[in-house]
Amino acid sequence: MMHAIKITDKIYWVGALDWNLRDFHGYSTNHGTTYNAYLILDKKTVLIDTVKAPFYEEMLARIKSIIDPKKIDIIISNHAEMDHSGSLPRAIKDFEPEKVYASTLGVQNLKAQLGQDLPVEAVANGSTLEIGEDSLTFLESRMLHWPDSMVCLLNKANVLFSNDIFGMHYCSTARFEKDANREDWIYEFHKYYANIVMPYSKVVSAFLKTVAQKGIAPKTICPDHGLIWQESIKDIVEMYHDFALPKNKKKVVLVYDTMWGSTQKMAAAVVDGLVQAGVEVEQFSLHSEHRSDVVAEVLNSAGVIFGTPVMNLEIFPSLADTMTYLKGLKKEGLVGAAFGSYGWAPSAIDNLEKMMKDMKIEIVAPNVKCQFVPTEQKLKECFELGLAVGKKVLEITK
Ligand code: FEO
Question: Ligand 1: distance of its center to the CA of 271 in Å?
Answer without folding.
Answer: 37
